[in-house]
Amino acid sequence: MKLLVLGSGTSTGVPRIGNDWGECDPNEPKNRRTRVSIVVESNEGARLLVDTSPDLRQQLLSNNIDKVDAVFWTHDHADHCHGIDDLRPMRFHRSAPLPGFASGDTARRLRQRFGYVFSGRDGYPTIVQLETLELVKIHQGFAVGSVEMPHGPITSTGFRFEADGKSIGYATDFAEITSEMVDLFYGIDILVTDCLRREPHPTHAGLGTALKLVELSGAKTAVLTHLDKSMDYAELSREVPPGVLVGYDGMELVA
Protein backbone atom coordinates (compact mmCIF):
# COMPACT_ATOMS: atom_id res chain seq x y z
CA MET A 1 0.00 0.00 0.00
CA LYS A 2 1.06 3.56 -0.62
CA LEU A 3 0.26 6.68 1.40
CA LEU A 4 0.27 10.07 -0.31
CA VAL A 5 -0.09 13.15 1.90
CA LEU A 6 -1.91 15.69 -0.24
CA GLY A 7 -2.02 18.36 2.46
CA SER A 8 -0.53 18.60 5.96
CA GLY A 9 -1.62 22.01 7.26
CA THR A 10 -4.18 23.34 9.68
CA SER A 11 -7.42 25.09 8.69
CA THR A 12 -5.68 28.30 7.57
CA GLY A 13 -2.74 26.56 5.94
CA VAL A 14 0.88 27.69 6.22
CA PRO A 15 1.61 30.47 5.60
CA ARG A 16 -1.58 32.15 6.71
CA ILE A 17 -3.04 34.84 4.49
CA GLY A 18 -0.86 37.91 5.00
CA ASN A 19 2.25 35.80 4.39
CA ASP A 20 2.33 34.90 8.07
CA TRP A 21 4.76 32.01 8.53
CA GLY A 22 4.76 32.17 12.32
CA GLU A 23 7.74 30.16 13.58
CA CYS A 24 8.11 28.24 10.30
CA ASP A 25 11.10 28.93 8.08
CA PRO A 26 9.74 30.28 4.77
CA ASN A 27 12.85 28.97 2.99
CA GLU A 28 11.96 25.36 3.84
CA PRO A 29 9.56 24.07 1.14
CA LYS A 30 8.14 21.45 3.52
CA ASN A 31 6.73 24.25 5.67
CA ARG A 32 4.36 25.33 2.88
CA ARG A 33 1.22 23.42 3.86
CA THR A 34 -2.17 23.12 2.23
CA ARG A 35 -5.21 21.83 4.12
CA VAL A 36 -5.16 18.21 5.23
CA SER A 37 -6.06 15.31 2.96
CA ILE A 38 -4.56 11.97 1.97
CA VAL A 39 -4.78 9.31 -0.73
CA VAL A 40 -4.16 5.62 -0.07
CA GLU A 41 -3.37 3.35 -3.00
CA SER A 42 -3.24 -0.43 -3.34
CA ASN A 43 -0.75 -2.46 -5.38
CA GLU A 44 -3.50 -2.85 -8.00
CA GLY A 45 -3.73 0.93 -8.36
CA ALA A 46 -7.06 1.50 -6.60
CA ARG A 47 -7.11 4.91 -4.90
CA LEU A 48 -9.17 6.15 -1.96
CA LEU A 49 -9.31 9.89 -1.21
CA VAL A 50 -9.87 11.04 2.37
CA ASP A 51 -11.46 14.50 2.59
CA THR A 52 -11.92 17.19 -0.03
CA SER A 53 -9.96 20.16 1.25
CA PRO A 54 -10.35 23.69 -0.18
CA ASP A 55 -6.97 23.08 -1.86
CA LEU A 56 -8.05 19.85 -3.56
CA ARG A 57 -7.68 21.03 -7.17
CA GLN A 58 -4.08 22.10 -6.72
CA GLN A 59 -3.28 19.00 -4.67
CA LEU A 60 -4.54 16.69 -7.41
CA LEU A 61 -2.71 18.62 -10.12
CA SER A 62 0.54 18.71 -8.13
CA ASN A 63 0.44 14.94 -7.64
CA ASN A 64 -0.78 14.07 -11.16
CA ILE A 65 -3.96 12.38 -9.89
CA ASP A 66 -6.77 12.33 -12.44
CA LYS A 67 -9.06 9.78 -10.80
CA VAL A 68 -9.93 8.21 -7.48
CA ASP A 69 -12.14 5.19 -6.82
CA ALA A 70 -13.96 6.49 -3.73
CA VAL A 71 -14.06 9.41 -1.31
CA PHE A 72 -14.21 9.20 2.48
CA TRP A 73 -14.96 12.17 4.73
CA THR A 74 -13.75 12.53 8.32
CA HIS A 75 -16.23 15.33 9.13
CA ASP A 76 -17.80 18.40 7.57
CA HIS A 77 -15.61 21.27 8.81
CA ALA A 78 -14.73 23.64 5.98
CA ASP A 79 -11.06 22.69 5.74
CA HIS A 80 -12.08 19.06 5.16
CA CYS A 81 -14.92 19.40 2.66
CA HIS A 82 -15.11 22.76 0.90
CA GLY A 83 -13.14 21.52 -2.11
CA ILE A 84 -15.92 19.07 -2.90
CA ASP A 85 -16.75 20.71 -6.24
CA ASP A 86 -13.32 19.73 -7.54
CA LEU A 87 -14.59 16.15 -7.74
CA ARG A 88 -16.65 17.11 -10.80
CA PRO A 89 -13.90 16.49 -13.42
CA MET A 90 -13.45 12.96 -12.07
CA ARG A 91 -17.14 12.31 -12.78
CA PHE A 92 -16.97 13.38 -16.45
CA HIS A 93 -15.83 10.04 -17.86
CA ARG A 94 -17.60 7.78 -15.40
CA SER A 95 -20.87 6.00 -16.13
CA ALA A 96 -21.93 6.34 -12.48
CA PRO A 97 -21.27 8.69 -9.56
CA LEU A 98 -18.17 8.35 -7.43
CA PRO A 99 -18.79 6.22 -4.32
CA GLY A 100 -18.59 8.32 -1.15
CA PHE A 101 -18.73 7.40 2.52
CA ALA A 102 -19.14 9.28 5.81
CA SER A 103 -20.65 8.82 9.25
CA GLY A 104 -24.40 9.33 9.52
CA ASP A 105 -24.10 12.82 11.03
CA THR A 106 -21.43 13.93 8.57
CA ALA A 107 -23.40 12.55 5.61
CA ARG A 108 -26.52 14.42 6.73
CA ARG A 109 -24.68 17.74 7.03
CA LEU A 110 -22.88 17.27 3.70
CA ARG A 111 -26.20 16.64 1.94
CA GLN A 112 -27.67 19.80 3.48
CA ARG A 113 -24.80 21.99 2.28
CA PHE A 114 -23.90 20.38 -1.06
CA GLY A 115 -27.16 18.90 -2.27
CA TYR A 116 -26.29 19.16 -5.97
CA VAL A 117 -23.22 16.95 -5.43
CA PHE A 118 -25.31 14.07 -4.13
CA SER A 119 -28.53 14.41 -6.11
CA GLY A 120 -27.70 16.35 -9.26
CA ARG A 121 -29.43 19.57 -10.34
CA ASP A 122 -30.70 21.31 -13.48
CA GLY A 123 -29.67 18.49 -15.80
CA TYR A 124 -26.26 17.98 -14.22
CA PRO A 125 -25.58 14.44 -12.99
CA THR A 126 -25.01 13.32 -9.45
CA ILE A 127 -21.28 13.58 -8.67
CA VAL A 128 -21.08 11.35 -5.58
CA GLN A 129 -23.32 8.52 -4.39
CA LEU A 130 -23.03 9.09 -0.65
CA GLU A 131 -23.50 6.18 1.77
CA THR A 132 -23.00 5.88 5.50
CA LEU A 133 -20.00 3.99 6.82
CA GLU A 134 -22.18 1.16 8.12
CA LEU A 135 -22.57 0.07 4.49
CA VAL A 136 -18.86 -0.31 3.72
CA LYS A 137 -16.57 -3.02 5.03
CA ILE A 138 -14.65 -3.77 1.83
CA HIS A 139 -14.26 -1.38 -1.13
CA GLN A 140 -12.01 -1.68 -4.19
CA GLY A 141 -10.03 -4.40 -2.43
CA PHE A 142 -9.56 -2.37 0.76
CA ALA A 143 -10.88 -3.51 4.12
CA VAL A 144 -12.20 -0.39 5.84
CA GLY A 145 -12.56 0.16 9.57
CA SER A 146 -13.64 3.37 11.29
CA VAL A 147 -14.05 4.98 14.70
CA GLU A 148 -15.64 8.20 15.93
CA MET A 149 -13.10 10.44 17.70
CA PRO A 150 -13.80 13.37 20.09
CA HIS A 151 -13.43 16.69 18.25
CA GLY A 152 -14.89 19.38 20.51
CA PRO A 153 -18.70 19.40 20.24
CA ILE A 154 -18.71 16.92 17.32
CA THR A 155 -16.78 13.83 16.29
CA SER A 156 -14.33 13.19 13.49
CA THR A 157 -14.05 9.77 11.88
CA GLY A 158 -10.76 7.92 12.06
CA PHE A 159 -10.07 5.30 9.38
CA ARG A 160 -8.05 2.11 9.02
CA PHE A 161 -7.47 0.87 5.48
CA GLU A 162 -6.00 -2.59 4.83
CA ALA A 163 -4.88 -4.11 1.54
CA ASP A 164 -2.12 -6.40 0.34
CA GLY A 165 -1.43 -7.46 3.94
CA LYS A 166 -0.60 -3.89 5.02
CA SER A 167 -2.46 -1.18 6.93
CA ILE A 168 -2.66 2.62 6.94
CA GLY A 169 -4.56 4.63 9.56
CA TYR A 170 -5.78 8.21 9.50
CA ALA A 171 -6.64 10.05 12.71
CA THR A 172 -7.06 13.77 12.19
CA ASP A 173 -9.01 16.31 14.25
CA PHE A 174 -9.24 14.62 17.64
CA ALA A 175 -8.61 16.02 21.11
CA GLU A 176 -8.76 12.88 23.27
CA ILE A 177 -7.69 9.27 22.87
CA THR A 178 -10.37 6.65 23.44
CA SER A 179 -10.01 2.91 23.90
CA GLU A 180 -11.93 2.40 20.65
CA MET A 181 -9.28 4.44 18.81
CA VAL A 182 -6.47 2.37 20.29
CA ASP A 183 -8.28 -0.82 19.28
CA LEU A 184 -8.77 0.35 15.69
CA PHE A 185 -5.18 1.49 15.17
CA TYR A 186 -3.42 -1.21 17.18
CA GLY A 187 -0.48 -2.78 15.34
CA ILE A 188 -0.90 -0.54 12.30
CA ASP A 189 1.90 -0.15 9.76
CA ILE A 190 1.52 3.59 9.15
CA LEU A 191 -0.53 5.94 11.34
CA VAL A 192 -1.17 9.53 10.23
CA THR A 193 -2.11 11.55 13.30
CA ASP A 194 -3.37 15.01 14.15
CA CYS A 195 -0.68 17.21 15.73
CA LEU A 196 -1.75 20.84 15.62
CA ARG A 197 0.89 22.35 17.90
CA ARG A 198 3.02 21.55 20.94
CA GLU A 199 0.57 22.95 23.48
CA PRO A 200 -2.78 21.29 24.31
CA HIS A 201 -5.81 22.44 22.30
CA PRO A 202 -9.53 21.98 23.10
CA THR A 203 -10.39 20.26 19.80
CA HIS A 204 -7.08 18.99 18.40
CA ALA A 205 -4.19 16.79 19.47
CA GLY A 206 -1.07 18.53 20.68
CA LEU A 207 2.33 16.91 20.26
CA GLY A 208 2.08 15.00 23.54
CA THR A 209 -1.33 13.54 22.68
CA ALA A 210 -0.20 12.59 19.18
CA LEU A 211 2.86 10.76 20.48
CA LYS A 212 0.74 9.03 23.11
CA LEU A 213 -1.57 7.62 20.41
CA VAL A 214 1.47 6.40 18.49
CA GLU A 215 2.76 4.66 21.61
CA LEU A 216 -0.57 3.09 22.57
CA SER A 217 -1.28 1.88 19.05
CA GLY A 218 2.17 0.39 18.53
CA ALA A 219 2.30 1.94 15.07
CA LYS A 220 5.40 0.93 13.15
CA THR A 221 5.64 4.35 11.51
CA ALA A 222 3.76 7.54 12.36
CA VAL A 223 3.24 10.76 10.40
CA LEU A 224 2.30 14.05 12.08
CA THR A 225 -0.21 16.20 10.19
CA HIS A 226 -2.64 19.15 10.59
CA LEU A 227 0.39 21.23 11.61
CA ASP A 228 0.05 24.95 12.33
CA LYS A 229 2.51 27.81 11.83
CA SER A 230 4.32 27.10 15.10
CA MET A 231 5.52 23.70 13.85
CA ASP A 232 8.69 24.26 11.84
CA TYR A 233 9.54 21.13 9.86
CA ALA A 234 13.26 20.94 10.66
CA GLU A 235 12.91 21.85 14.31
CA LEU A 236 10.06 19.42 14.90
CA SER A 237 11.91 16.66 13.04
CA ARG A 238 14.73 16.96 15.58
CA GLU A 239 12.29 16.63 18.50
CA VAL A 240 10.29 13.56 17.57
CA PRO A 241 11.36 10.01 18.48
CA PRO A 242 12.49 7.36 15.96
CA GLY A 243 9.68 6.07 13.78
CA VAL A 244 7.80 9.37 13.90
CA LEU A 245 7.94 11.58 10.80
CA VAL A 246 6.83 15.15 10.28
CA GLY A 247 4.34 15.16 7.43
CA TYR A 248 4.59 17.49 4.45
CA ASP A 249 2.64 18.08 1.26
CA GLY A 250 3.55 15.49 -1.35
CA MET A 251 5.05 13.00 1.11
CA GLU A 252 4.86 9.39 -0.10
CA LEU A 253 5.35 6.31 2.07
CA VAL A 254 4.99 2.64 1.25
CA ALA A 255 3.71 0.27 3.95
Automatic annotation (TrEMBL):
Entry-linked SMART domains: Lactamase_B
Signal sequence interval, chain numbering: none
InterPro entries assigned: Metallo-B-lactamas, RibonucZ/Hydroxyglut_hydro
Metallo-beta-lactamase domain residues: 34-226
PANTHER family per UniProt: HYDROLASE C777.06C-RELATED (PTHR42663:SF6), HYDROLASE C777.06C-RELATED-RELATED (PTHR42663)
Protein name per Swiss-Prot or TrEMBL: MBL fold metallo-hydrolase
The organism of origin for this protein: Croceibacterium selenioxidans
Biological classification of the source: Bacteria, Pseudomonadati, Pseudomonadota, Alphaproteobacteria, Sphingomonadales
